[in-house]
Amino acid sequence: MPEQIIKLNDNFIARPEDRVFFDHVHFKIYKFNPKGFKLLNFVPEKGIELITWKGLCLPEVTEDEFSHFYNKCLNYGILTAT
To answer: Could you tell me how far CA 2 lies from the centroid of its own chain?
Structure first.
């Protein structure tokens, strides 16, 4: 079975200077703390396998923190999973 691929929402424009993702379609701004913005920057535009992204994130956060962050990003539409 193929691994789940995650991507950032296609509507987002990143503004690294203030750790913001701007959704230009729904005119929403998502502001992140430095750690959250860093974790999302591990996701390339073409997407990444969930297991690979998790491996990149775990040196930065605990397993529980990762799960909470990932689920919150899915719920708010920041990430999409296929």
So the answer is: 20
